[in-house]
Write a structure and sequence with these properties.
46% of the residues lie in helices and 11% in strands. The protein is an alpha/beta fold. The protein is globular, with a radius of gyration of 18 Å.
Length: 304
Amino acid sequence: MKTTPVTFEDLQSSVIAVPPLCRNKDLSLAKSQNSRLIKHMYKGGIRTLLYGGNANLYNIAPSEYHSLLKMLVDVAPEDMWIVPSVGPMYGTAMDQAKILSEFAFPTAMLLPTLFPSKPAGVATAIRHFVEKSGIKAVLYIKDGSYITPELAAELVNDGLISWIKYAIVEPDPKKDPYLKKLIKLVDTKLIVSGIGEQPSIIHLRDFGVTGFTAGCVCIAPSRSTALLQAILKKDWDTAEKIREEFVALEDLRNAHSPILVLHHAVELSGVAQTGPVLPLLTELPANLLPKIEKAAKALLAKNG
């Protein structure tokens, strides 16, 4: 596992994949299947993994956290950067910070929650997490009321943030007042688009952010990598054609649950056996699975 400090080159050199977490029938961690999924992404050029919402770490037991981190260290290639998540609740994050201090992860992300939280309290939690874990935090901005751009900038200026995952969904991503303000206060080298392939072109081209995270990259890592490379080359026509390849599966994720559709899609495509989903979530209705399987296999076929 890569343990060097986070750099701009790291954030731009790879799509940041946000994979599901594979589990056995008894809900224990499925080491072999998680390794299989990681190898698939690695073969497609992915060098950064972020285990967060798609991995359903919101619902992980604190008693399982050490085992999760050890598994990720064991299965990660030497040049792959792994970013685990903590929280979203303060007490959970503080206990996980202590566990993280036993490992060499260079950063970790605080999962966002709007209840019960206030922007100033989120900023305080970040400060406490960094102090206790000894590593910088990834700030995940998923809603405008979670933390203000000004507070985010204060955390960055105080050296507490490795990078920001920006994921506020707007009807028109070109019209984004929060992001417009954020990029005036924070160096865009530290901001990553966090909503997958769909708004990636607009976020990188029009707002100048550094890279993007994605879930469907788990199925088609080569195509998602090609999309990032086309964007960085400013080959917008090629980028748009590749982006369109992800629309069918992303539309299903938007309609029925980004986490659950991806969880099923990875398994139905044949990439890896993700197994049952950890409660409080649950599997999707059986009548949706054929549509997910069709879109997932079509995307995988484009991966080559």
